[in-house]
Here is the input.
Amino acid sequence: MNRLKGKRCLITGGTTGIGIETAREFTAEGARVAVTGRNPATLKAARKELGSDVLIIDSDASDVAAQAAIAAALKEKFGGLDVVFINAGIAELRPIDKWDAAAFERTFSVNVKGPFFLIQALLPILANPSSIVINASVNAHVGMANTSVYGASKAAILSFTRTMSGELVSRGVRVNAVSPGPITTPLYGKLGLTGDDLKAVSNSIKGMVPQGRFGNPSEVAKAVVFLASDESQFTVGAEILIDGGLSL
Here is the structure.
């Protein structure tokens, strides 16, 4: 269990859900790990669970200036980076006629703009070789109702997987993506739905999945470990769909 031994790794949005599960997997595989988050409660819980060996960074994923600060902190603490998992994101699900400019901007700032400028800020400290893994979504591929803006943001960052691959591969930086389907994480609890409505939405989504269930964060985290490790050295610009067959 040493596939990431000695590797210096950053996980954005690493205090809950897929992010913290990936932090557990990375640590178990021998990595030195840093995670970002913004919620004081989950930051505190992550510090307690992950221990003092994991660097916890309080940072807003939508703030361009904050991305440069993350890079500076990692240069000071780690000296450089071998792995980046771009995981921080938000999902606001609304009918098309219920969107306003502020909500649209918020989604693209967190899901697209922040990640782009974080990668830009990290380039000077990325090792050769190194790996960037982007957390996209099955919603970049399927026309699910109420996901117009969320799906578009994930399609944009999935496009970065390909374009950045072409640009950065000569520098020894591999860029790949995972695209989860419905995963059991706190994300669904942030949709502002009542208990009954949330259950109805969950059952509706589950009915679209051929395997008939939600995925587990560990099923995504294990795929991220593969893409972060030297086992995937010849994998560039690829996307792993982890969706129980939803996109078939």
Q: What stands out?
A: The CA atoms of residues 24 and 213 lie 23 Å apart. The mean pLDDT is 94. The longest strand covers residues 126-135.
